[in-house]
Structures are given as structure tokens and as C-alpha cells.
Amino acid sequence: MPIFETMKFSSKTLEKAVDALSMLPSIGRKSALRLALHLADNNTEKKDKIIAAVMALRDDLKSCKKCHNYSDNDICDICADVARSHKTICVVESVKDVMAIENTQQFSGVYHVLGGVISPLEGVGPEDLHIESLLSRVKEQDDIEELIMAISPTIEGDTTIYYISKLLEGKVKVSTIARGVSFGGELEYADELTLGRSIHSRTTYTQEITI
User: Within this chain, do residues 111 and 196 fall inside the same structural domain, yes or no?
Assistant: First the structure.
């Protein structure tokens, strides 16, 4: 058994910090111990800044009431930006995808974050996603011209696109990003050039699969 799984701590406070930090993605106990010791060894001002930032994530971070992106206010800066095209909505799985697409600087519309994809095997149905609020946006904003489905090209992603396109059939143009992103790949890991080209070269969605 690895030494960091069995080692004894001289301080319960340090042990609790390591336990907490090791709960983060990609952080093992060895890395968690290194981070905890770094925080313990550094000045109070640095620790206070980190603690304050983490507390703000819990207390101050909001979900945009319109697109479900993270925000400091009820409406995020992207949705509030009048310079962006509100007639084109890019539908994504997560906030990470918004950040990935924004980094390409190839999209000037707005977003809608679903919060995942339909996955019966994982127990995720349409009611668990922000699909209803997307339908409401299309209904309430009658000048929406296009929904770009920037969803990872997986079976679950394609199922989600198909489901939404059926609900909006005849109401708005639905397109998908070009398959520069390999099937089964995650949008957040695509390089900026490939992702940017995929959005720029998007195609009108055709309902080619059956469920």
C-alpha cells in the first residue's frame, strides 16, 4: 500500500486539510500533502486570499438565470453584452465548454448551458437538464435565428441533440459543429484552432438517428 495512504500525521488539522484537498479532481494524497504543507508554510496573507477565494465560490458565485453560466450577478456578462448577437445561441453541456469556445474568439453569440447530456445508463433524463429553459428562451425571444449544438460527439451527445431538435422542429434552425472534434471526444480538450473551425464550419442538423 502506498506510504501516503498509511502515513500517520502529527496534526489532525493537517490531516483534515490533506483529506479535503485530495477530494479535488486529479489530486492524490501526495499532491494534497504538498499543497497543504505549502499553505501551512506560507504567510497568513497568502492563505487568507486563497481561503477568501474558495469561500466566495460557495457564497457569491451564481448561476445566470438566462443561460446557466457561472456569474457574479443574476445575468452573466455574456448575456448582458448588447454587442453580442442574441439571435444565435450556442448550446453546450457545461461551463467548461463555454470557456473553451470563448477562447477560440470565433463566436460572438450567446450560450445556453444544459448541465450535461441525456444518458439513461447514468440516470440522466431530459428533466435533469436545462432543456425546458432553452425551450422557454426560444418561445419568449421570437427573433432567435439559430441554435448551434456544440455538444461532444458521443452517443449521449447525439441523443441529446436529436431530442432537442425534435422539440424545436419547425421553430428555429438547429445546426451542429463540424466534426473536427473526433467522435467520443470532449469539447473542452479540443485545441482552440480545431474547435474554432468546427464552429465556423457548422452544418444544419438533420435528424438521422432514431431512438
Answer: yes
Contact 148, 90 (CB under 8 A): yes
Residue 71 C-beta-side C-alpha neighbours within 13 Å: 17
Report the pLDDT averaged over residues 130-134.
97
Which of 59, 84, 100 marks a domain boundary?
59
Residue that the C-alpha cell 474547435 belongs to: 195
Percent of the chain with pLDDT over 70: 81
In a 3-state reduction of DSSP, which class is residue 197?
Answer: helix
Q: 54 pLDDT exceeds 50?
A: yes
Q: What is the pLDDT of residue 154?
A: 86
Q: Does 55 lie in the same domain as 75?
A: no
Instruction: Please provide the average confidence, as pLDDT, over all residues in the chain.
Output: 86
Position 78, amino acid: I
Q: Are residues 107 and 169 in the same domain?
A: yes
CB atoms closer than 10 angstroms to residue 162? 19
CATH number of the domain at 154, please.
3.40.1360.10
Among candidates 112, 78, 77, 118, which has minimal Cα distance to 97?
112
Q: Considering the entire predicted model, what is its pTM?
A: 0.78
CA max distance for the chain: 67
